[in-house]
Design goal:
Elements lengths: L1 H21 L27 E5 L4 H15 L3 E5 L5 H8 L8 E5 L3 H6 L10 H7 L2 H6 L1 E2 L2 E2 L2 E7 L1 E5 L10 H11 L7 E4 L5 H9 L7 H4 L1 E5 L4 H16 L10 H9 L3 E6 L4 H5 L5 E4 L11 E10 L6 H10 L3 H11 L2 E2 L2 H4 L2 H5 L1 H10 L2 E3 L10 H14 L3 H16 L9
Helix pairs in contact: 2-14, 8-10, 10-18, 18-19
Amino acid sequence: MKKMMSLVVALAALLAIVACSNDKTEPAGTAIQTENSTDSEVLQEPGAELLVWASKEELPFINEISKQFTEKYGVPVMIQEVGASDTLGKLTTDGPAQIGADLVTFTHDQLGKAVSAGLVLPNDAWQEDTRKTNKDNVIQAVTYGNIMYGYPLSLESNVLFYNKQLVPEPPASFEEVVEFAKGFNDPGKSQFALMWEIENFYFNYMFIASDGGYVFGNNGVNFNDIGLNNEGAVKGVAYYGTLKDKLLPMRTGDVTYDVKKGLFLGGQLAMNIDGPWLIHELREQKDRFGAAPLPSINGKPAVSFFGVKSLYVNAYTKYPNAAKLFAHFASDKEAQLLNFQLTGAAPSHSELMTDPNVQKDEFVSAITKQFEHSQPMPSIQQMSSVWIPIAAAMADVWNNGTDAKTALDHAVGQIKDSISGGSSGGGL
């Protein structure tokens, strides 16, 4: 009898455990994976509604993808225009106050600040999908502290824009650019072969990196390993210094974005190194303007920074599941193709980079080709200590003919002081 009672009690306990497990509900904000789908799917919270912040350039895509999302999932999506440069600052104040957008877009170089301030949630439920559909360096860009946060939308990289009426075929090397300049430059008429923002490290990184220089070691996260004054960096910056007499006899501060854009659109500048923000204006005159990867430097491919624009989920959102679902929906292959079609954004999705329709677009294909020789800009906060010292060093080389190694050694000293809490160096 005792044995029978023990068996009954044990069976009742087992049934209770099974019943509890079947009735288990997930708390709000928990990712739930469906069993009958090849994709994991986050189930949105009842009554969810979303707010997305997007820049003016992104609005055509965000408006359309939001309509599609609402049609499919029944979640209303509101959109507010916020300038790209204002997004993170606005999220810093509005997020904790719970009046910020549920989703925002920004380029990955701001990720370190966002994570350190606790402003964004990890891309957890969809990280495997994101890994499978994007290249390793894209994943590296949207990851911070070994945790993935971003849902990649598009790529940004410097490319060579050129006037087809002046340069029928884009030059493959800086040596070809210099040769062209010999017969084209006329400083008295403000006529030049090539311009870039020669004091801006974002554009000058190609001279540092093309021969083996780098900012921080271990793919940009080890700030104790600075490669801005190694042998390759010194060689590249020394070459950079020679271009003032051969190519662009102007002081660094005189070559601004507005100056070179005006000369380029006016036909006085044959070639212009710039980013994708210029494409919209040039696309309207695609018979006149073209784009190509950057010319090689000292016989080696020019290595540039690249950025990844992504969607991020506000850590203070009331609807994290719905927000994550939207972020994935708006960043998958079909959505990125739509983004390309509506705004001309360069896809980050691996398959779309080689899509025939993408490759037919001269401007976007230039970005995807340059991407193959690009590195993600470091997103750690110590990067803020780099900009001013390196810009000053390169300006000293260009304007005053200072020895490249001397200038770079001094800059790296300032950067180390700034990172360790010293008074030198400064940052943005």
